[in-house]
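To: structure desk
From: M.T.
Subject: fold request, one chain
Message: Could you run this one when you get a chance? Sequence is below, nothing fancy, just the single chain.
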Amino acid sequence: MTKKPRSVDLTQVTEWDDGKMRRKDDYLAAEEPLEIRVGEHPLSVTMRTPGHDLELAAGFLFTEGLVQRAEQILRLASLTPVNTPDRGNVVEAELSPEAAPDFEKMRRHFFAASSCGICGKASIDAVRSRLLRPPNADFRLSAELLVRLPDALRSSQDVFERTGGLHAAALFDAGGKLLALREDIGRHNAVDKVIGWALREGRLPLSDCVLLVSGRGGFEIVQKAIVAGVPVVASVSAPSSLAVQLARELRLTLVGFLRGRRFVIYAGDERVVESKPARK
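Reply: Done. Structure tokens follow.
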């Protein structure tokens, strides 16, 4: 019987605490390579936390522009290497003929490490030159709803509570309801898992949703959100300069430093509305 992928590993550590040293058990966020193939052709290797691998592969294929619709992914399957029967570290995709890449003409291959979402791309310009449509201009949400989202994210981060070592991406609807949350050692992988879930569930475009990510809001996260039609991206830390530039160019609402009752809007402030004061 195939074992469930482990997102957490247990190890022995030595803890020093105020002059006292002791041995104890500790949890680590699992990190393993995942190879994504199209047919027999290797396409990408990403360091990820095992789990939701098919969603990760689907989200990667979509956000990187290899497919535009779920129907173009004819099959996704996890392959189990012979020498590691309990871990499936390869996902093989079969794409429809119009979506299958021409590997003879491809000049670059994707390589994404857990700390870098755009490694291996020929240039940032190659990403920005894609035909990305501005997200839903009519979407609005209240500031009071926005500040409640981080608590909802943290309360649902099962693995983070044990390890402290994972990023999370959470998708909320306009009313603040949590639709999907995925954790991964790579923040861009967590986003791909959420978008892959939406793709496989037939929920794209995500034109009435908010994407909340732990950590910083980087360029690759903004790019992936725009591909999926997300109008608002929020992060608990700072965005990068390129993320802000892309968000402003394509009119996405980008929020940073979403902590407590404070946040900073870097782009698209028209989508965030002030709450009406309560009547006395």
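Reply (cont.): The first helix runs from residue 53 to 63. Let me know if you need anything else for the meeting.
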